[in-house]
What does this fold into?
Amino acid sequence: MQVLKVNKGGTAHWVLLDDDMHLIDPVCEFLEFQRKIDRADNTLRAYAVDLKIYWEFLMKSSYRYDQVSILTIADFVDYLRSGAGDEASLYVTSSRTNRSINRIMSSVHRFYRYEQLNGACPDPVFFETVPETEQMYQSLLAHTKTGYQTKKSIFKLKESTKTARIVTKDEMNRFLRALERQRDRLLFALLYETGARIQEALDLEVSMLPQPDERKAVGVFRQIRSKGKRRDLYAPMPLIRALNDFVYGKNGADADRQFLFVAEKTNYAGRQLTYHAAYDIMRRTQQRLGMEFCFHDLRHTFCTGLIESGVDVGIVRQVMGHANLYTTKRYVHLSDEYLMESMNRYWSDRERGDRYEAS
It folds into this structure.
């Protein structure tokens, strides 16, 4: 089986082909629906790759996709845990983590939800109703839920917690200086200074670029594409000015240029810079410098910086583009330096106040 990206009528479509190079219609229809509701290109590719793994499992196990049961899905989880279907890529290693398996299962669930709503086949049971645990942040109408119940995936595997990498200013400056192209320096500066997701940055269009305004400290990219929705992206004015100089320069922007970040190699010049190209630039530069971080670490770093600076969590939620405050809470990982500074300040204050003696 193969996952391919094809161009039809000037629009890119992701498709899944079987071993005879025939379209696997249910998957292709699902991917086309997701494209129409404005899913990011990288998300579409992830869905296609995940469903390729699922279809290979169905073929090897002699299952029909429209006649699966809860036991079939449980067998698929076992199949994933055994490492079957692994392939060399930027995203997987020889042994899948529980987090990777959960992501694949999420793609399969979305596929069956589409099939159910389309009337093609029933949706295998993925979720059970359980009492809702108390959370720090709840929705406005949480109290109206009957019995405070919520849904929980019965297939979700326990994920190990991993502390996010905080990228310091010195590290980032060293990384930026090592980049050869101005385009790359501006792309990674944008990720670091705005908290943008990588696909959000790659989808930025020239028409969205705000004009420099020396009276303001911040510029706004209005209504950028964000995980199938739209949101505003806030950037410091020096970065806005640098992006304008880069795009327009002395001769002005190319009339055919749509995206801010485009390929510069002769064969692909002018085309939107891809996730894989940006990932390759990051990894090759990091190997030379002996450092390591991922795109999302830059987003974590920006979010943490806002919190440490005392920005209200409600504002942070809006700036980061989170659907709710609980997501913002999960993304914040305070730096070791900030934690130590806070604890030192706390105990210094205690020393000046009441004392106690340990018995």
In short: Strands lie at 2-8, 11-17, 127-131, 149-153, 218-226, 229-236.
